Amino acid sequence: MSAHAGGIELQDDLNNKVVLPQPAQRIVSLAPSVTELLFSAGAGSKVVAAVDYSDFPEEAKTLPRVGGYTQLDIERILALRPDVVIGWKSGNHPAALEQLRKLNIPVYITETRFLDQIPTTLERFGLMAGTQAQAQQEAEHFRNTLHRLKTQYQHKTPVRVFYQVWNQPLITINRQNLINQVIEACGGQNVFAELNTIAPRIDVEAVLKANPDAIVASGMGIERPEWLDEWLKWPAIKAVKNHQLHFIPPGHIQRQTVRVLLGTERLCQQLEQTRHTMDGQP
């Protein structure tokens, strides 16, 4: 990626070339995580609209809306005259993104599935918005903090983890997921890492068979979900027997943003607690 007298040229996460004649002053974000990363990269003042659920930081709540990430208001986007639209491969409809391209609007597509992509995305957003200094600072802080946590926890005694996204249906994650990388950074082992889909549905019997050392849930809000305590009905599970039912707010672990460092630090501390309960277990 580069910025020069002739403009800005870089590749998005799908290796599409994106060219801007100058730093973008009007940016439309098509994913809540994109909105949050733009603010982290120092480009919040250049975001003229976002999709529903763009709720962090606080300033993002007042941005004009262009629909939900799965159903975009193309006319509204055009009326905003954006210099660039930043989309999300897994969330936005491909036809809508292609329609924007055909209307000669530069489209940058993100697909951030792994921890090391977050600082790179920050740097790219900073380049597009002309806020490289703040973006670089945030990116380096992210890399340094993640390195510190990995150095401290990654090679400790492995903790077998069941990560519960939801209860009905019972949903977990496999290895092709940012959350799996967080678990591994903390020295954990995702008991369902080998399943085929990114967010597979499972049943209680599968959890009983896996017999995890820790159960970690997120839910939908900042409060611990009541359904996490449903596992108390199964005292034979190590995590239940040793009182290792943990909660992390979804915004700290399920969004591909700088806040995932908060979730990583919290999970590492939780798994360290679990290790102390594992001493002497067969």
UniProtKB/TrEMBL annotation:
Leader peptide range in chain numbering: none
Gene3D superfamilies: Nitrogenase molybdenum iron protein domain (3.40.50.1980)
The Fe/B12 periplasmic-binding domain, residue ranges: 26-275
PANTHER family in alphabetical order: MOLYBDATE-BINDING PROTEIN MOLA, VITAMIN B12-BINDING PROTEIN
UniProt keyword Ubl conjugation, yes or no: no
Pfam family, one: Peripla_BP_2
SUPFAM superfamilies xref list: Helical backbone' metal receptor
Protein name: Cobalamin-binding protein
Highest taxon, organism lineage: Bacteria
Alphabetical keyword list: Signal
